[in-house]
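During the reporting period the student researcher (J.K.) took over the structure-prediction task from the postdoctoral fellow and processed the backlog of single-chain submissions. One of the processed entries is reproduced below for the supervisory committee.
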Amino acid sequence: MNTKALFFGIIAIVALVVIRSTVYILPEYQKGVVLRFGELQPIYPSTGINFKYPLMDEIVRFDGRVLTLDAPPKILLTRQQKRLEVDSYAKWRVKDVGVYYVKTGGSERRAANSLSDRIDRELANQLGQRTLEEAVSGERDQLMADLTKAINDAVGDELGIEVTDIRVKQIELPAEVRDSVYGRMETERNETAQEYRSNGNKEAEQKRALADRQKVVIEADAYKESELVRGEGDALATAIYASAYNKDAEFYSFVRSLNAYQTTFSNKGDVMLVDPKSEFFRYLKNPNGKTEQ
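J.K. obtained the following structure tokens:
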């Protein structure tokens, strides 16, 4: 019984060793190549369970995820020969596992160093075609798009990798010239602002003078029109008075006298000295308005 158990135990151990030497699992976050007696095979393992020849095949694994290359800041020159301190990073991943292994031996550090050199050269080339203003603000997005395309064209077939994105985190002037340049930029902006203020004040004065002239013209036209309307009203009133007077001169005179009495005696505090024989009291003395002889 013990002999059989030992025999089956040995068989199980041998089977386990054979399985472990012929079966392997490649996680989804990894990529790899097969070396048979040290020679790269054209068939690459896929994610999941794979098989290999024991003692003949060697599996070389490397990271298949999107990786980050964070390069140290570099001093580069613009088209105007202005020095800039550029800080950038890149996102990349393995695209062709065979080319990647041949060129880098599957070493992530070697691939990152080669990619960093390419990015530095292409970034210097792209900045050398742009002015300081274009590099800092005007064409930042276009700069990164052109840089990503140029790097992919250069390293896609050469290193077997794909650069998914390159970003410029910061573009700064070198510390030794930063203060002087910022001071000059501030002076230029202040001069521009002063010019805008002067032009604005000049335009405001012109508009204010035009508005004042329009105000004078409008007021003169309004006064002229009001005088015409007032004259027409006075003429109409005079015509009405004249018509009423022609119809009954005595009654018209009587009404005017009543209005005069009402106006004169409306304030009890007023004192007026009038000759009793005055024409003013004509209708008070005689309702017919006849003067005494």
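The committee noted the following: The two ends are 178 Å apart (CA to CA).
J.K. will present the remaining backlog at the next meeting.
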